């Protein structure tokens, strides 16, 4: 207990206010660790692992984690599992990772339970085993495990599809602030997946996820403001949320902003701004943005370069099978080829 108290004090004061103080603390933990104090061994491993009060030394960290793990310290066992799982300071070895995870899981270590499940899930060889371990972590309250249970139930991955159960797991995770789950509850209400359609509820949950920075939620929230679904039409709010999603690289949001600025829908018409957003989406391979961008360049004869830009984007869209782009590139008696 005295070493636990000391570690808390150490972390609060930053542990490096003076070299002498840091050395004293590290030495105190080392002496206790060498005498077999399992908590001191684990704390000393953490200090070396993260460079707290001393230089980082992954090998010394591993040595002390192993000492603590051998005495049954669940956190140390789990940490060693992660090292072997991801090849951190040791060669990657899934079997050794599982061995350490299992030892921690025997003590109901929640992260170890989840890690075992994810190993089986990632190999795609034993979904029932994956679900067993993920479910145990979810039942103990791990939000990421609850989210994964929801996703597997949503798509019937290794388990029979059940949208109602999926919704229940999303809700459990969302109640803990799991951001993606906030979005998927909104989506469930929006499209009636495991729950009755309720646009007002969809709007509310999208808003929660959007406020946490979830890009797809920002896109959907913008669309609801634009169309007046679950809330009144508000073009200003729609543009605000499209911008936030677009700045995170969401193609549909970039395209929507292009349309808004091109048409002056809820904002002053601004063709240069429209071009900016169409270009952002076009560069990500959005065929419709490529086509529209080409038409804008083709219509603007003020710069000779514009026809070349137009042909470039028609070609990009046509390569994806965009029918109107293909037609624009087809010479006819009334419409010669754009660039000779």
Automatic annotation (TrEMBL):
Signal peptide: 1-21
SMART domains: SEL1
This protein's UniProt keywords: Signal
Gene3D superfamilies in the record: Tetratricopeptide repeat domain
InterPro entries from the UniProt entry: Mitotic_Regulator, Sel1-like, TPR-like_helical_dom_sf
Lineage top rank: taxon: Bacteria
Pfam families: Sel1
PROSITE patterns, A to Z: PROKAR_LIPOPROTEIN
Protein name: SEL1-like repeat protein
Organism whose genome encodes this protein: Shewanella pneumatophori
Lineage of the species this protein comes from: Bacteria, Pseudomonadati, Pseudomonadota, Gammaproteobacteria, Alteromonadales
């Amino acid at each position: 207990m005295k070493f636990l108290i000391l570690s808390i004090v150490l972390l609060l004061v930053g542990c490096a206010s003076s070299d002498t103080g840091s050395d004293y603390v590290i030495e105190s933990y080392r002496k206790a660790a060498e005498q077999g104090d399992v908590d001191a061994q684990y704390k000393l491993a953490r200090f070396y692992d993260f460079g707290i009060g001393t230089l980082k030394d992954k090998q010394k960290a591993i040595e002390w984690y192993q000492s603590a793990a051998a005495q049954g310290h669940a956190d140390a066992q789990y940490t060693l599992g992660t090292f072997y799982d991801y090849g951190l300071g040791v060669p990657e070895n899934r079997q050794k990772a599982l061995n350490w995870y299992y030892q921690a899981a025997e003590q109901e270590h929640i992260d170890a339970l989840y890690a075992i499940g994810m190993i089986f899930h990632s190999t795609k060889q034993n979904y029932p085993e994956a679900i067993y371990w993920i479910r145990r972590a979810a039942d103990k309250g791990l939000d990421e495990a609850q989210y994964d249970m929801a996703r597997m139930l949503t798509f019937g991955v290794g388990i029979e599809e059940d949208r109602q159960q999926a919704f229940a797991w999303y809700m459990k995770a969302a109640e803990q602030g799991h951001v993606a789950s906030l979005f998927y509850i909104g989506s469930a209400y929006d499209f009636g997946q495991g729950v009755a359609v309720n646009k007002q509820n969809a709007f509310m949950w999208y808003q929660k996820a959007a406020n946490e920075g979830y890009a797809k939620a920002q896109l959907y929230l913008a669309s609801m403001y634009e169309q007046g679904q679950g809330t009144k039409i508000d073009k200003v709010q729609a543009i605000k949320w499209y911008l936030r999603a677009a700045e995170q690289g969401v193609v549909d949001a970039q395209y929507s902003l292009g349309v808004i600025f091109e048409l002056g829908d809820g904002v002053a018409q601004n063709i240069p701004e429209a071009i900016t957003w169409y270009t952002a989406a076009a560069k990500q391979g959005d065929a419709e943005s490529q086509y529209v961008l080409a038409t804008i360049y083709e219509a603007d004869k003020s710069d000779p370069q514009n026809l070349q830009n137009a042909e470039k984007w028609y070609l990009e869209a046509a390569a994806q099978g965009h029918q109107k782009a293909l037609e624009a590139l087809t010479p006819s008696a009334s419409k010669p080829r754009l660039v000779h």
